[in-house]
Structure formats: C-alpha cells, structure tokens
Amino acid sequence: MDVQFDSESYWNRSSRAAFSFDDEDEVDIVSTELPSNKWENNGIFSDDTISEASFENSPALNHLSIKAILSEEALKLVLQEQNLDERVIHKGVSPDEELKLLRRQIQSTLYSPDLDATAQKLLQGKTAPLEMFRSLHEKQQLLDTLLSNGGGHAVVTVLLFLKRTLNAAQFHAILKQRPKALEQYLSYLRESGDVSSHIDLLQRFGRHQEAALKQFQAALASEDAPSRKQHLQRLVDAYANAGVGIIPLYEQVFHAALKMQLLMEREGTAGKQLGDQPTPIELLYVCCQQNNNWKEQDMLKPIAPQRFAADQQISPAQYEWTALNERAQAQAYADLECIFERVPTWHPLKSKQFHISFDLTLAVVRLYELHAPSTVLQLFLSKMGNSGEKLALAQKVKCIKAVIDAMAGLKQQQELKQLRETLPERSEEQFYCENALKSLQSKRWTTDNIKLKL
Amino acid sequence: MIMELTLEKKLQGFQLVAQEKLQAILCSIPGKKELILEPALIKPLEHVCTASWLKLKGIQRIYKHDAKQSLPRAADEVHIYMIRSLLGTYQTLLRQLQPLAMVETPDVFLKMYHIICVPSCYTYYQTLLEQAGLWGLVQLHHYNWDFIYFDQGVLSMELPNLYECLYLQGDSSPLPAVAQSLRLLQMICGPPAVILSFGSHSAQLLQMLQALGKLPESSNLPDYGGWLIIDRDKDYPSSLLTPAIYAGLLLEVFQQRAGEIVVDNSKNKISSQRVELLQSKQSSKGASSKPISVRLNSASDEIYGDNRYKHFAQASSWIRAQVKALGLELQKLNDMQLEEMHDYVARKLPKLTELKAKVLRHLNASEIVIQMLGNFRRLQALEEDILNNVSRKRLLGDIDELLTTDGQRYNTLRLLCLLHHCAGVAPEELQTFARNYCNMFGHRELGVFQQLAQAGLLPQLLPEKKAPTKLLANLPLPKFQQTEFQANANRLKLLTSCGDGPDGAASSKEVQSCPSFVFNGTYIPLVAQLCSILLRANTAEELSTKLAMIEGMQLHLDSNRQTTPKAYAAQQKTQSPGPAAASSSGEDADVFPLRLRNLFVFVVGGANYAEIAACDFISKLTGAHITVASDSLMAGSDLIAAAFSN
After folding, report:
1. pTM of the full structure
2. Residue A156 with chain B: CB contacts under 8 Å
3. Is residue A434 situated within a structural domain?
4. How far apart are CA A291 and CA A310, in angstroms?
C-alpha cells in the first residue's frame, strides 16, 4: 500500500472543495462558491509536519495481521453485527436454509411477536417490525423489557410507535407510570428541537420550573428584538398570574432580561457596538463609557451606571470592578475616586469613605496591568492596612512612593536610607523619601511618645 | 515469522478491526463513491485510515459536510454521508436531502444515498427516514471504530457527547455502542477473571454486555486479570480539581481533538472563557503565528513521553533546561573542523533540529500554561480547602470574588460544583451566585444550573425560600459532620492532606511516593485507589473489608455471576475448609490475588489525565499493566461545558 501519499493535504480543504484521486498533484476544486479560507484561517487543519508524521501506528501494524488478534469466526460475527438489515437474504444460501429463514420471518410478522428477539434487535440498532405488537399489554411489555435492558434509543423507537398506535390519553398514561420512559422521551423532544411539544409535555406532567426555563430560552432565541421582547413580556405576565410557585431566581432573571430588552429598545445607541444580545456586564461597561458625570450620577437616567446596576441587580463588587476596568481603560483615573468613595447611607452628614467590595490587591494589580500612573496606584495602596503586604505589593507594581509609605509605616529607617541612595538625585521620589525619613525621626519627640514615657 | 504479540500491540490492533469494519460498509456499496464527512469526524478517522486507504476502497472524492449547503450529485455518483449519531445532526441532514423525495424514485437495487452514523444508528432513525419520505432512497448504516489507541496505556472511543447524554439528559442511547466495544475487547484480550463495577451506568453496561451473547472461542490467551468499570459521577473531584501534572494541564489550557492538542498563541481554552471586555489587554505577542498541534503520544514525541505524568513545575523546568542544552549542542558546530562538521551535519544535525523543534513546541505550550493559570498557588490552596471543607463561608466568598475579578465561564462554575460536591451548597447560596453569574455571562445561561443539578453537581433550586435553613448554613459546621463525599473519601483514604499542621511538611516529601501527586498531594483519584486495592488484595476477604462500606460496588465473575465484594468473601469463606475442594472445582476458587496482573479501567463519562497518571504510578509501583480507557478524555472545564450545549 502506498502510504507516501500525504493524507493530511486531503483533509485540508474547505467544505466545497474536493480532491479527485485521479490527478494526485492537483486539487480538483468543484466549488460552487468562493473557495472559503475559513479552515486555513483558523488553522485547525494546517499544522507543521513533524507531529503529523503519521497517524497510523504503522511500524507496529505493518507486521500485525488481523488474524493474530481476532479469529475468523469472531471477525465474521463482528461484521455481521454491524449489518443493520438482516432481512436481506445473502447469495449462496441453500434453498433449505432460505425456506427456514422465510418461515421464521413470516411467523414473527403474522403470529405471536417474539418479545426478547425484538428487544435484542432494537438494542443493536437493527430494524425489527413492531406492527404485530397490537394489544396494549404487548405494547407495555415491549416497553418495559427495553426499559430494563437500557439503551434509550430503543425506548424512543417504541415510544414513537406507541404514540402512533395509541391515543393521547393512553400514551400519556404509559409515560406517567414510567418516569424513565418519560425522561427518555423528553430528551428525544429536546434533541429534535420540537420546543412546543417539549414544553407541553413538561407542563402536562407538572414540571413547571423546567417548562418556564424552556420557554425563557425559546424567547431569547427568537430571531429579532421585537418578538424577543414580546415573548419575554408574555412569559413574565404568565408566571405573575399563574399561581404556580416559580423559582425566585428564574423570576428575577426573566424580569431582568425583559427590562434590559426594553432599555436597549429605548436607548438604541447603548448596545450598538455589542452585538445582538449583550450580557448585563457588557451593557454596564457601555453605560460606563457613556456616562460623563461620575461625581453625581443621575439616578433618573436608566443608563446611568449605578441606576443600571441597581435595575439589573448587579452586585456592588461587579459594578465596581466593571467601572474600574472601563475608567482605567479610558485613562479617566480621576473618576476612580468617585466610584469607590461613598457617603454612608445611614449617616448622610458623615464625610465620604473609601469602600471597595473586593480584595484591594486585585484592584492594584489590575490597575498596574492597565498601565495606571503611580499616583493612582499610590491612592489605592494607601488604603491598605497591613504595611507588610503593602510593601510587597508596592514593590511588585513598582510604585516607589507607596514603597516609601509602607517602609515608613514599618519604621524601616535603614531600608529607607538605602532606598534614598538608589533614587535619582533631586527627583520627586527622593524628596518624598527624605520627608518620610524626617518625619520618622521627628516622631520620637511627638507628645504621644513623651506621655507614654512618663 | 511470528512476532511476539504484546498487549500494547493488541490494543493498537483495534485499528485493523476498525478498518475491516469500515471496509465492509464501503465495499457493500457499489458505484462511484463520494464520501462526505462531518468535520468533527475527520481527526478521529485519521486514526483509522488514511485518504489513500479510502481511495483503495473506491472513494473518489472526500468532502467536508456543510450543514448549510447541500452537495450536488452527478447522476452516476453515490453519496456517502458520515455523521455522528446526534439527532440534531441527523435531522439537519434529512432536511438537506428532503428535496430528493420529490424528484427521485426509489431504485430497489441501487441506492444513491447512504448515511453512516457513528457509532450507532438508532432504530428510530429509520422511522424518521420514512417520515421524511426518503425511505428507499437513502440507506442507513452504522459504524463504530471502537477504541482508538492514543498513547501507551490510553484508549479513547472519541464519543464526545456521552457524558452529556448519560448524566445531564438522562438519555442512555449511547450505551449499547460502548457495550459492543467492550465485547470486542473481550474477543481480542479475553474475558477477565473478575470485573468490579461502581455505579448504575457501569452495571447497566455489563448487563448489556451479557445480553450480547456468548463470545466465540478464541485461541488467544487472556490479557487482563481484572476490569474496573466506574461511573464518572462516582469520582467527580478527579475531574473538577485542577491537575498538577503536565499532560493534565495541557488539556486544561488547550483544545484536544482525538489525542492531539492545538497550541495557539492568540487563543486557548482558558482565554476564551473570560469576558473579553474585562481583560487587561496584554499585548498579544506573536498573535499571527500559526497554531501548532502536538500529539499526546509518547512514541512519536519523546519530550512528551518523558514529561507527560510529571509535576508541571518539574516538567517545565526540564524542558527549559533541555532548550538550553540543545542550544549549546548546536553551538559546537562553530568550533568544528570541516570534516567533523560534514559528519555532524549529515548524521546528527537533522535529529537535533527535529528534537529542537519538538522541545520548542513544548516550551511554548508550557509558557502559555503558566501565563493562563496566573496565580496557580492560590487556586490550589482554594481547592485544597474545598476538599477538606475548611471554612465554607470564606470559600463561597472567594469563589464569588473570582467570578467578579477573573470570571471564567466554566472554571469558576467548576469550583462551585466542587464545593457543592465536597461540602454542600445551599439553594439560597446558589441563587446569589447564579444571579451574579448570569450578569457576567448573560441571561441565556440560566438553564445551566438546572442541568448541573441534574448531574448532582449543584443543588436543585426550590420554588419557595426556606428561611430556617439559611441560619443553619451560616453556622460553621463542626468537624465530625461529614458530607457523604467525605465519608466515602475517608473510607477509601483518598484525602491525603487533611491532617494539616506538623505532618504537612512531611507530606511534601511523601508526595512522590503517593498517587496523590497528580493533585499536588491532596487527593488520590478513586480509580487509582481501586486499582491498587484490586492488585494488592490477597483474598476476597481482604477486598471485602476494604470495600464493604461503599455502596453500589458490584463484582462480576466469569460465569455471569453478579455479587458484591462482601457476599463473595462470605461465599469464599464457607467454601474454604479444605483447599482441595476449592481447587478441584476450579471455577469457584478465590480469584484473589489476581493471577494476571494486568488491569483494564473504563470510566463511563470521560476520563482525565490525572487519573491516567495516577494509574500509571500504581502500575509502576505494583509491576502491573493498567490500561485506562474511556468514551473520551476530558478536562474539568469540558465536563462543565457539556451543560452549556443546550
């Protein structure tokens, strides 16, 4: 066998390009459209040569014959089991055998159906006539046999047959008594994309939560925004009045989705750059981009970031993180203070406080990654309580002033002096460092210390 | 000339059987044949045959199937479609072929359209074919390539949706095909003396295997002393924990297809899980470079072979050292005499450059892994605390913070699933998390929580709030209140890091002598522990004492007997007076200790490299061979991703 033939190049073609084996060198493109390069572009099928050397385990296999691993009888059995249609009578069968075969077939079609043989065949994916299972009892028996044998596809085959040959009441009664069969049938409906039957059946069997979920997914999958809105509205209304308790999370998300849909409709510009169905965080990001007053956000405007976050029940941490990223990307560092400083609601007269809902370290690292200037980093670092951690982090993000602050906090005079030597002469940092040293030294004589000594 | 037929050779021989089976189908179809393949089938099919082989079997051209566009057929051509047995795919294809029903009249003798379903053709496909009016025009076939040999000791069936079907959808349709493949394994490697199964799907699989009928007589000697078949949901932590070994982390970061990973500098499995807007856009260096695929096969890539099951830190520093050494080696060229150089260039250089290319590929891959995992230590500390249920409340907070500041579509959810599995998550807690999650990744992901609850990975959400339970959940649980996972894990001694404190230091030294090294010394994969128990048991009694407390384990002995480890031990005891009696009856003698020291492990619903590496470790320790097979190889994020497909 000629294995020199490079198999790779044959797979490397776009869907509409085929290759004929007649002329091995040239690729015969029978294309009805432009030979699309999408496979080339994402590069899945273009690889370097070495790792692709050979996919056959050829050195081993060239010496290995199938007879060594599988007896002739076994191989024959394997191939026979692969054959789907056993009703075909092969050539070379003696008339006697042919007669036997036909007699058996007639017997199984006209008279008593063979339960086990049918179940066995179905399990292997082979065609087996079901028409002779006519009485309800026989039908149920067949289903139950398959349910106990496993192999869900055979169960589906029988269920489809039952649906065709029984009325709805009987069919549903059978499903009701057999939860496993119901599960299998539901899975079939879901896979087949028959959404309405799927939802109907879920509701019929009292599984309202799943039905609601399915309806929600169907609503979101609607092609255009108006019909999506309409479906969502209907869904929200239906469950508000239905009286079946719905999972609170589902209810919240249904409402939030509807609200977002309405918002995007009204504020057409908001989601333009984002594709058809942005996530709440993505939309929040856009709201942040469009917000131009961070000192006092207009809570009457639905696209003010804070208002939007409240409407969508976006957690404070998510709001702050998104705003931090957006403002830093926009290099509007001055706004960061407004995001993290707030007046305590319980005491409006008190001065503003710094408040952050996630680990400060993460904020500092992210700001550093976004190339924030060191004054901004210092601002955030100054909020850290633990001077040891502050020092380590300040060194990591190369914020000299914060390093000096932290050293001063730790009273590391020696280290400060060393640091001063490394700083450029007459630079701002050097002055800062000297001041820190001075205040450290002068602190000895503050009144607090004297009092303590006395 | 008779070659010695080793076990590994036999396992590679599955390819020959797969060729034989494909040939039988192709040769049963007369005419000028064109093959139209579903794109996802191409990579696995390359493990079965080459394009030139297909040509020999009469295939004229090969196309990639395009669901959006149907392929025109010349009058004398026969179209053979090859697709996965997924109802959606099948229906799309039928819709595409639908126009035929109007124009063509069935020809009893020569069908111009064929559909080969991999791995099985479900019986109701025939019904659907008839409903679509295509009966008689299109003929259905099924084709199962059984086990594909990936690497030494690693087999996969490449059935990517099996986990989803069985555990999330409650659909057992793919099981018969697996049973058939296991039967083929029995034909090739002989039936084992004993099969240990754990889980309902595993038990069902064995029942099907039996229903398939007796095996034909074989002259081959049996290879495996025992089989271990286990359901994925019996050991979720092995999938949910982040592995610490090289092969495992490669799979975490890079997309795997049929035993090879794609290393792409611009995107990978982790970066695509993040929300793009919230990324600190680090300059994507070399984004234009071509993606490279690396085969996870030790025979074709010795660098991989040397490092696959090593701790990642060890592997990556080894690779870096190797790069340096090679650089020095190539520098030697400068100091050589002309003659020396001739010789060198002719004999050594090609090998060296090839090796260098391989090493550089691994260097690139390991650097991307390091970059993607970020603060790996923090993640591992978090996982360790989750495993040992240390301050649950803080863990929830940490996971929520991760979601906010480094949200990964699958991996963050995976941590919550791990927490639920090990320590339990209350529905109210899930509600809060889910709300934040939907904000982050979109409302359309709402269904995921129900899907994961189906698999037992998350709690079921409840229609009404239960106030009192919330109080209880907030209380720190006392140590002795174990979750079911911990009870079982302790019985089987899977948790290796719970005794923190003074022996914490000692454990780092022991890491190398315990299969838990695959998870940085915190957890032993269940399959590895069971293998070790099976190989070390000297009597049925011994096995029984180790496994008696675990529910759902079954022993299957050759003569179709199904029992539990305990019952089997009891039975052996009553027989035992008079060893002569036992040996005379032959069959009833205790199967332990296993006479054949090879084990075959099958995980129903996706194995992972941590398990494979741990089994490899056990096999080296006990001198046995362990083959790990599964329907597919999955990283933890793949498992979670399965819940997203609907």
Report:
1. 0.87
2. 122, 124, 173
3. yes
4. 15
